[in-house]
Write a structure and sequence with these properties.
The chain contains two helices and three strands. It is an alpha+beta fold and 80 residues long. It has one domain. The longest helix is centred in the N-terminal third of the chain and has 22 residues. Bound molecules: zinc ion (ZN).
């Protein structure tokens, strides 16, 4: 299967994000890095060819709510 340019960019950015996040746990958290990660998140969510999955989350012990999110970039999709 051929990988589109967008998918490649999303993969690279996602990997970069994971590396930065792991590093942030070990070292001080820099404001600039958080800003950068937010920018990358926006970029990934814009380029991602969303793979929407359905999930149920517990709102209270008696009630569950249905949510939809992307399996690749973890963006929550709102349908309302
Ligand atoms: Zn996505």
């Amino acid at each position: 299967m051929e990988t589109s340019e967008e998918e490649t960019i999303v993969d690279v950015l996602s990997e970069f994000k994971t590396k930065i996040r792991n590093k942030m746990i070990l070292e001080n958290t820099y404001e600039e890095l958080i800003e950068l990660l937010n920018q990358i998140d926006k970029c990934v969510q814009k380029l991602c060819i969303h793979d929407i999955v359905e999930d149920w989350i517990d709102i209270t012990p008696e009630r569950s709510g249905r949510i939809f999110y992307c399996n690749k970039c973890y963006k929550t999709i709102e349908f309302e």
